[in-house]
């Protein structure tokens, strides 16, 4: 799936929002409905589409007014956030609603319960849509189809509830930085390690790249994603449609496990110097004479 930032904290929308006059991508900037264009392209590629939506807006006078009143008034949530979010769902029918910008006010102010009740019972996507856990202050990791908990959440152990690691290739920020240094980007190896750790512990991974103001993806992001794709071309069997195994990682070395059907995948993240890899957690699998070993991309191993 792909998740696009439909609106961030400054309030600019990537679709011609009825509630964001002269501050959207059709009225100002590209003069294109970017949400519609990308959604069609993503779905044509067989992927699901989600939208990130910031509940708060830093500079909106109605939000500033409610904040000054300690959120005892709801001018902004009643007249901007709620109707705009419903318009987004009704017009573009997302598979994922990825809320953010919730932390300054509680769910009562945001009218999150009312929105989610509508989303799951009345909206045009009620039968398939999923939503995250960012719907009010102090609600992270408590309510949602999947938990995001904190940015770059990677617990390293199996979680009881479905979760997502929303992370950035740029280690410092989510947006594009023209002054970023090479060492401030994750290496391709670090990206693969993060992916493997996340999947082994039952999570999804949402990899953020910040485009330039022209909408282009800079070469270093392209390289990282292409390198990850090359790795997945060989090892994707251990990732896609997999489930956590009874053990997530091996204490003997940097190995993480996944499973699918009767197969157990040991994802070894370091090549052994002596060309021998010890798998302590998987040793019991070899009690059966029917156990075989294959190296993905190469076939059977004697």
Structural topology:
Blueprint: E1 2-7, H1 34-44, E2 49-54, H2 61-68, H3 75-92, E3 96-100, H4 107-110, H5 112-121, E4 130-131, E5 163-168, H6 188-200, E6 203-208, H7 219-235, E7 243-250, E8 255-260, E9 263-268, E10 294-295, E11 299-300
Parallel strand pairs: 1-2, 2-3, 3-4, 5-6
Antiparallel strand pairs: 7-8, 8-9, 10-11
Protein model, in words:
This protein is of the alpha/beta class and 302 residues long. It has helices at residues 34-44, 61-68, 75-92, 107-110, 112-121, 188-200, 219-235, and strands at 2-7, 49-54, 96-100, 130-131, 163-168, 203-208, 243-250, 255-260, 263-268, 294-295, 299-300. A hairpin with a 4-residue loop joins strand 7 (243-250) and strand 8. The protein is elongated, with a radius of gyration of 22 Å. 29% of the residues are buried. The mean pLDDT is 95.
Describe the strand arrangement of the main beta sheet, using strand numbers: 1-2-3-4
Portion in beta strands = 15-25%
By DSSP, the count of extended strands is 11
Helical residue percent band = 25-40%
Number of helices: 7
Let me know the largest β-sheet: 4 strands, parallel
Query: Distance between termini?
Result: 38 Å
Shape from CA axes? elongated
Q: Give me the Rg, rounded.
A: 22 Å
Keywords, please?
single chain; 302 residues; alpha/beta; four-stranded parallel sheet; three-stranded antiparallel sheet; 27% helix
Summarize this entry quickly:
With 302 residues, this protein is α/β, with parallel strands linked by helices.
